[in-house]
């Protein structure tokens, strides 16, 4: 059983190898949620990086430098107002047709929203926007 789990995890990582579109979409969703209230504080940055690096498949497919660099680029965009947020939303389009990828992106965003123990109204609204963009229903994953 352990061998099957290990094979599944490594298979997922192999599937992601070189898939920067998925890494970018995950980081974009994290940045969108972190910036949902109009500002990004240090704890949100730390929580977003932690959530993305905690993803076993991404952590296996990409090194910490790649993940942190991508996360920083997406957080910088999130601070760029509506234009920055629109470019982040467009990152989601690249993976929306793959349900497994879309679910990974949405679940990461939900984890970030819930990181402090509560999901406020602005975070909930952003989760709903992300889910809609991905063709998913957030309530199905609550």
TrEMBL record:
Domain Co-chaperone DjlA N-terminal: 24-141
Domain of life: Bacteria
CDD domains registered for this protein in UniProt: terB (cd07176)
Protein known as: Tellurite resistance protein TerB
